[in-house]
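Before relying on records like the one below, remember that each one covers exactly one chain. Contacts with other chains, cofactors or solvent are not represented anywhere in the record.
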Amino acid sequence: MTDAETTDAGISGRTALPVAEAATLARRIAENVERVIVGQRDAIEHILIAILSRGHLLLDDVPGVGKTMLARATARSLDCSFKRVQFTPDLLPSDVTGVNVFNQKTREFEFQPGPVFANVVLGDEINRAPPKTQSALLEAMEETQVTVDGETRPLPDPFTVIATQNDIETGRTYELPMAEIDRFMKKLHLGYPDEASETEMLGRVVGNHPIESLEPVAAVEDLRKAQRTVAAVEVSQPVRSYVTRLAGYTRDHAELGVSPRGSIALLRASQARAVLDEREYVIPDDVQAEATTVLSHRVLAGGAGAGRTVVEDALDSVPVE
């Protein structure tokens, strides 16, 4: 892949960006988001990796640390459609996917698309809605389509869900089903900013908030081309085997280990990490850099944080061959 005419395998006739240009695009987006979000460069890169590898992201942390603002800033940096869904206990599945409405003039039913029909969908406080409503996203996240009243409709390309949740108010929230959690490529915890970052952030929000003046720095077609670049990154057999053995370790040392979907997610995230480092091939370091955020939330092994411990043990124990 040495020029702009490089094509992604399996997508005949559709061009991809050279790796260096895709990496530059990602840096440009990250720097734009940093105009709003201070001290979270790693989290911003994780979001970009999820988007570039056609995955979805779950931001899980206490209220007020910037989860929603980070998602909004990322979406505004991309010149693509953006919709926000505020999840509440009374939200219905049709409020997410859309509904057929009878038109009195034409005497026919017309489909009114829901907010899921966008390139970037922000599901804010997703765990405040009951499981039935959460399940409205399952088909969309896995198959990039929505079925309403027996008719299937494709979603826009690209399509990414960025969801936020907090586990503080457990009496007023619903636990996400494992089938939905497994569809998120990554799960991130932002944490509190350090003193310097928080002080700088306070200076930026005096007067008008910087999110209001944030302009897109990447066209949607450039994003599509960068996604094809990521999909074409070479993954050798030894690296694929390494991913498989990491997943196998979690299955042997946890109540519920990493699914094959999780292994695929790790491979794709590693491809995106390679592009950010301007490489056309994946190395074990890419896999190790992505494993914790991609695999931990898929592992059930007892108490809080146990999944992460199992994944870290896997990285320490499984040899690179």
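The first helix runs from residue 19 to 33.
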